[in-house]
């Protein structure tokens, strides 16, 4: 490839030749030669650089990788379904209550683990965090028990204890299997279990209330 200096010399020589040439044919030939040199130089300038740039410089692929088959490679965007088991905390009892009767309202759409009301700026829930990575996540609860809210895969029951978890688990599995919006076998599921408060309240304080007895 000619250097900038050599190209400049060529243009200078051609221009000098044009000035000293006589006759129309000489002018035409010299102009054609000058145009050819200019075109070659333009093509050289437009040739793609062999130097890596952008994402190729860091060897980064922007293509989505296949969904993992192992939980050890799972990413937030791979979660397809959220669900929850638990007691009144997961059921969202009284989250926005401003009066004593309001404590009995189930604000499941605002439940910390599976609520799907608002967005992450309006309500910090696991669902709304996952939506930042996968807007199509399914299973979140919405609304309240006063406005016909959708519990979806929030099977928590107020007053529940750990002894009730197997029943809730069977209920949750049945709901996911029977929901046409889900693929039970292949969808990745994030299920939270938050329980134990009512177990503690139910302990007989006149007897042994040690941590060991609580676990039993």
UniProtKB/TrEMBL annotation:
It comes from the Eukaryota. Keywords: Signal. One of its GO terms (molecular function) is phospholipase activity. Pfam families: Lipase_GDSL. Residues 1-21 form the signal peptide. Coiled coil: none annotated. PANTHER family: GH22081P-RELATED (PTHR21325:SF31), PHOSPHOLIPASE B, PLB1 (PTHR21325). This is Phospholipase B1, membrane-associated-like. The gene is LOC100182192.
